[in-house]
């Protein structure tokens, strides 16, 4: 890890200054080469714990470990130079106490070189967010549909569908902002509630399945590339890479079976091999 490649990256104050201004563009990234392709076009990259489901085929994010997050966080840092990189704190690595959260977040920051960490939870995490930010660790909040609480919620369910749920979610947003988070992800949230929270709090809101009025948007990269077998309903596919990969594999298989690959230009022929 090198701290030198932090020099030209987008900073936390720059993201905070985008409240009510030009929308913040964010995507997830788990992998050095794909991160390199998207780095010029995004403001923030999230190494999300969704990697457990997307990269490892897990049913939920609960099995993701701190070591997995650190390995993928370091890969994304090596592949990028511009975007602010946030790494998710996985389930079990921060809920116990502010001290445990600080110790594990320090590992993430030191071993990946990323700028910030993200944690799921509202009011109950306010003390932890305050503790970390006071000690130099920028924190992104995450409220609404929080996938690490899937067992408590009984599934991946949109939050705030009825107005009687709103007050508690608004309080979560207010407490995360007051505790010092530099931005907050609003996931799977009824549109008018996400719009209301965006008007109410002083930090940028980053929506996913929430509202176009959020201060920014994030999508899981593989979902928007058309690589996910069952993307959530709110996802727009901006490419169809799943079909492109299958087509390329079919073409390769045909070429190998017909002995049309490797062609002479793809072999070392009689050239001296180094
Ligand atoms: O893990 C993740 O990818 C996330 C985003 C969906 C916000 O938390």
Give structural attributes:
274 residues, alpha/beta, TIM Barrel, eight-stranded parallel β-barrel, 11 helices, globular, binds 3-methyl-2-oxobutanoic acid
How would you explain this protein's 3D organization?
The structure is a single chain. With 274 residues, the protein is of the alpha/beta class. It has one domain (12-240): TIM Barrel (Alpha-Beta Barrel), CATH 3.20.20. It is 38% helix and 13% strand. The chain has 11 helices and 8 strands. The protein binds 3-methyl-2-oxobutanoic acid. The site of 3-methyl-2-oxobutanoic acid (KIV) has 12 residues, from β6.
List the helices and strands and how they pair.
Blueprint: H1 12-16, E1 24-28, H2 32-38, E2 44-47, H3 51-54, H4 66-79, E3 84-88, H5 98-112, E4 116-118, H6 126-134, E5 139-144, H7 150-153, H8 166-179, E6 183-187, H9 191-200, E7 205-208, E8 216-219, H10 221-224, H11 241-257
Parallel strand pairs: 1-2, 1-8, 2-3, 3-4, 4-5, 5-6, 6-7, 7-8
This protein binds 3-methyl-2-oxobutanoic acid.
